[in-house]
Amino acid sequence: MKVAIVGAGIAGGYLAHLLEQKGITPDVYEQSDHGTSCGYRSCGWGAPDATGTFLDRAGLNLHDYLLEPMVTMNFDGLVAKTPLYTLDKPRLIRDLRSGLRIIQHRFTDQEAEEYDVVVDATGISRALLPPCSSDLSLPTLQYRVTVKPRGSRVLGPGVYGNQIPGLGYIWVFPLGRNQYHIGAGGLAFDRYGEILEQFFEDLSPSYSLTRHCSCSGDVRVASPFYSQPFVNTRKRNDGMPQQIIGVGESIGTVSPFTGEGIIYSLECAKILADSWLNEKTYASRVLSRFVWMKKERETLDYLLSDGQVNGPRLRDRWRFYRNARRSGIRLPMLQAFRRMGSLSQWIEGDGHQQLTNSHK
Ligand SMILES: Cc1cc2nc3c(=O)[nH]c(=O)nc-3n(C[C@H](O)[C@H](O)[C@H](O)COP(=O)(O)OP(=O)(O)OC[C@H]3O[C@@H](n4cnc5c(N)ncnc54)[C@H](O)[C@@H]3O)c2cc1C
Hints:
This protein is of the alpha/beta class. Helix content is 32%, strand content 27%. It has 3 domains: 3-135 and 221-291, FAD/NAD(P)-binding domain, CATH 3.50.50.60; 137-219, D-Amino Acid Oxidase, subunit A, domain 2 (D-Amino Acid Oxidase, Chain A, domain 2); 294-359, no CATH class.
């Protein structure tokens, strides 16, 4: 059986290792034209320490990739403990790719004819599967910045939803040696540049800032449930059946509230390897493992819906709180209910108005 994995990002690279452990040697196609200065897809590089358990299975050690711990993080003024780090994601992807049979170009229809199974690990492009049943993607803009304190206070990690009119947030992720990823992403809103300029201006009395590069890109926040089908069976030109199977962000394994997709892409790849070629088991395991993503997506739909002016319901606040707990972020419940990211704008009454205005 001939297997191709299209996309050697986190999901595709990791899946290739897991399949090799099962005695399957896939061909891996990677187009690698992200137009970024690091050469990889735009990403904040934040991940929880639980990522290590997945890397162990590929013979990799999380500690080799840790850049900076984010032991405490500022959430709109509320400081909470987290198990998050920034990872040297380019190095991790390079190590995942090493030893694989990588074909460095965009996968073509002609090449597809050679394979019995083709895995769509192409992330946001979802290049091979039919469109998602109900897609939703979140645009972003990010800078890599050197931030030097003018006084003694070092800039800590943070997430600021209050700075965004509507649903979204600004992130400040330290990468070590005074470098940071500072970016913004949000739904139904397109003034990232402006918002980030203001953010930099607000920081400038206390910090000197040097920007090195910028990148932009969308994150699929549709959730797996709304990113079906996961599998498509078709006939090749020679009449033989061929299966296209999605993995990682191509099938929406990203937290809709936070855009966090590294650990979930790894987990999705593991589910696919464990249920290899059993499409029903794969689909039902992905749907049940990530059922919370469906609920988060439904909250986003609700908050974005026309005529919705009342702000988050109890269940939406509970989902934000659960999201933080799932990520190991120790926010006190009442505070979290009031202040989780941009939700506070609805709680304080003017968020929907601002979102509506930003559409005009
Ligand atoms: C600005 C931004 C910030 C983010 N920050 C974080 C964060 O801090 N933490 C976190 O956990 N997640 C973050 N994410 C999400 C995370 O980056 C992704 O969810 C995760 O990388 C998905 O992994 P993947 O392997 O499924 O897809 P990808 O990493 O996108 O990999 C897909 C690969 O497929 C290749 N490809 C695409 N089409 C083809 C083709 N036709 N032929 C050959 N190759 C192809 C691409 O070149 C790419 O290498 C962020 C995303 C963005 C946009």
